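CHAIN AND CONFORMATION:
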Amino acid sequence: MFLVLAIIGLVGTWTYNVIAILQRNDFVGDWFNNGPAVGSLTTDLLIMAVAGCAFIVIEGRRLGMRHLWAYIAFSGLTAIAFTFPLFLANRERRLTELGATEPAEGMAPS
């Protein structure tokens, strides 16, 4: 799934990038003038958001985290730039919890 998203992201963003190059547009200036750069940036962020949401579900389930739906729902209400790092912070906390409760590899519980 992530490989498919990577290919879609490459093709989607570079389609707009090639258009901008052929039109000799100022890529950064196009962000403010609604040129091809806006399409490239939108595609870039959309693919990143889909991949991030998939990672939240897959990794969160693997670690037994709860309320994963909230990260995805709140990304639409706030921003994925807020909810994805929040998930990563809570993931680190969960990994620490799991590491504290499980015996080290190669060590038998006493």
Remarks:
- Residues 2-101 form one domain.
- The mean pLDDT is 88.
- Residues 64 and 94 are 9 Å apart (CA to CA).
- The chain has one domain: 2-101.
